[in-house]
Design brief:
The chain is mainly alpha-helical. It has 2 domains: 3-37, no CATH class; 46-96, no CATH class. It is built from 3 helices and 3 strands; from the N terminus they run E-E-E-H-H-H. It has helices spanning 32-37, 46-67, 78-97, and strands spanning 3-6, 12-16, 25-26. A 3-stranded antiparallel sheet has the order 2-1-3. It is elongated. The N and C termini lie far apart (59 Å).
């Protein structure tokens, strides 16, 4: 339960676990200003989103290395191979079931 003291401009200057004469204002744990003050200025879950995006980049890098024959899939541990195959399979299934707005139709090509 953080309690804060603010400076003359209204910004958080001090944070304490317990209230005292200097820190009387209670601030919720997830308060954005508090998170910024303690150096965790990303919103909850934002780091997870960055990780998910980074995993996709790594997946693409691995695909590129395999395509250019710089490495073989068998160079990776079995667990990594299984995870890559599972993700690749999932992505292929998801792309097949996605709405294909730019796909050719019986009425001719799109634009």
């Amino acid at each position: 339960m953080p309690y804060v003291h603010r400076d003359d401009e209204g910004r958080i200057a001090t944070v304490q676990r317990h209230a005292d004469d200097a820190c009387r204002e209670f601030v919720a744990d997830g308060d954005r200003e508090l998170l910024a003050f303690v150096g965790a200025d990303t919103a909850p879950g934002a780091f997870d989103e960055l990780d998910a995006g980074f995993v996709r980049v790594l997946e693409d890098v691995i695909d590129t290395l395999l395509t250019k024959n710089i490495m073989n899939i068998t160079d990776l541990p079995e667990q990594a191979q299984a995870k890559l195959f599972a993700r690749k399979s999932f992505r292929e299934r998801a792309s097949r079931s996605a709405l294909q707005l730019l796909a050719p139709t019986d009425f001719g090509d799109v634009i």
